[in-house]
């Protein structure tokens, strides 16, 4: 009898482990809802509530994490053990463990440990993911999603709904790496460029709207066209389409970066303690040196809201939007009519 129960337990355990297969995770998943494991909503001041998160699983064991829609993201390894997703470094070191609560072709629910490392705590963060294709299909096409129309030829603006994807973790990182190999660097300045990726996945029509310097711009152009075929075309309604892509590369001096870094640390510490007056002071200081920091603008907006300055909060969140981030979209819709 004991042998029978031992065998039964083993069979149940093996059956349980077999429920989750790596191949079931294949593809890109986008977080549609973030809440506590208890079921309670995250407060608006918790930046995780509105942060874009995308996981892309490539078989047999690669996972990519992205905090913006337009890139594949940082590459890691992964493994499935029972109902646990183990995220590993390139050499196999376990960096994070998530608990898979639910998995089917249309939904993936995972729990991230709380500050104490618990996956069972009511304050652990629960993410509900949906296949990226379903998320894109659920987004309505607006006039802002169209760049230009010439007869039957439409060029779309890059957006979460329609975008071309570079065949690599991040096109910006690729450019930086190739510039470094060519011995090209920039101490400060901003490059703004646009280009079109056609339905065949070929990048063309590069326009440097604002350059760094002639040598940098020439090198950037050469690297861009050398990689023109390293793209996957955008899709709309199941068909490949033309899309206008935008790239911005900013360089800062240490005099700008270091003060902003330390002021941001002080601001974030006060923010986490809900000392919004002190946090506001340090976010003001940090943004003087780095006026492009989307998360600082978002958090400063929360500080202003908490201190009764909703108009100022909306101004900060609109700034986030102008910096090509959807981080503040939900609070803009909720509070800034």
Overview of this protein structure:
This protein is of the alpha+beta class and about 325 residues long. The chain has three domains: about 20-135, Calycin beta-barrel core domain (Lipocalin, Beta Barrel), CATH 2.40.128; about 140-250, Fusion Protein Consisting Of Minor Coat Protein, Glycine Rich Linker, Tola, And A His Tag, Chain: A, Domain 2 (2-Layer Sandwich); about 255-335, Alpha Horseshoe (Serine Threonine Protein Phosphatase 5, Tetratricopeptide repeat), CATH 1.25.40. The protein is about 35% helix and about 30% strand. It has nine helices and 16 strands. The chain has helices spanning about 1-20, 130-140, 170-180, 215-225, 255-270, 275-290, 295-305, 310-320, 330-335, and strands spanning about 25-35, 55-60, 60-65, 75-80, 85-90, 95-105, 105-110, 125-130, 145-150, 155, 165, 190-195, 205-210, 230, 235, 240-250. It has an eight-stranded antiparallel barrel. Helix 6 packs antiparallel against helix 7 (about 295-305).
The strand order across the widest sheet is: 1-2-3-4-5-6-7-8
Number of helices: 9
What does the main sheet amount to?
8 strands, antiparallel, barrel
**CATH class category label of the largest domain:** Mainly Beta
Tell me the CATH superfamily of the largest domain. Answer: Calycin beta-barrel core domain
- Based on secondary structure, the structural category is alpha+beta
On the 0 to 100 scale, the average pLDDT is 93
Q: Which architecture of the largest domain per CATH?
A: Beta Barrel
Examine the coordinates and then state which fold CATH places here, giving the name of the CATH topology of the largest domain: Lipocalin
DSSP helix fraction: 25-40%
Provide the low-confidence segments as ranges.
7-18
Q: Estimate what percentage of residues fall within beta strands.
A: 25-35%
Cα-based radius of gyration, to the nearest Å: 23 Å
């Amino acid at each position: 009898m004991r042998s029978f129960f031992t065998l039964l337990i083993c069979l149940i355990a093996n059956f349980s482990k077999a429920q989750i297969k790596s191949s079931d995770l294949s593809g890109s998943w986008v977080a549609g809802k973030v809440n506590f494991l208890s079921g309670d909503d995250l407060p608006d001041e918790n930046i995780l509530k509105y942060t874009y998160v995308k996981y892309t699983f490539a078989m047999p064991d690669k996972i990519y994490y992205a905090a913006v829609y337009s890139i594949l993201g940082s590459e890691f390894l992964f493994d499935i053990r029972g109902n646990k997703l183990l995220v590993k470094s390139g050499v196999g070191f376990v960096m994070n463990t998530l608990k898979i609560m639910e998995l089917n072709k249309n939904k993936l629910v995972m729990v991230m440990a709380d500050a104490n490392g618990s996956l069972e705590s009511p304050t652990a963060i629960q993410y509900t993911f949906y296949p990226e294709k379903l998320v894109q299909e659920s987004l309505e096409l607006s006039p802002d999603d169209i760049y230009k129309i010439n007869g039957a030829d439409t060029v779309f603006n890059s957006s979460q709904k329609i975008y071309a994807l570079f065949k690599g973790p991040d096109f910006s990182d690729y450019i930086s790496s190739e510039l470094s190999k060519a011995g090209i660097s920039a101490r400060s300045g901003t490059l703004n460029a646009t280009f079109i990726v056609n339905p065949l996945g070929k990048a063309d029509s590069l326009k440097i709207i604002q350059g760094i310097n002639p040598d940098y711009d020439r090198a950037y152009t050469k690297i861009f066209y050398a990689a023109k075929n390293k793209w996957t075309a955008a899709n709309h309604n199941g068909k490949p389409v033309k899309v206008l892509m935008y790239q911005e590369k900013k360089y800062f001096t240490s005099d700008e970066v270091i003060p902003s870094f330390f002021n941001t640390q002080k601001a974030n510490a006060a923010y986490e303690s809900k000392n919004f007056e002190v946090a506001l002071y340090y976010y003001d200081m940090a943004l003087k040196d780095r006026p492009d920091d989307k998360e600082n603008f978002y958090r400063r907006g929360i500080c202003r809201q908490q201190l009764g300055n909703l108009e100022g909060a909306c101004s900060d969140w609109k700034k986030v939007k102008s910096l090509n981030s959807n981080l503040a979209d939900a609070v803009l819709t909720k509070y800034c009519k």
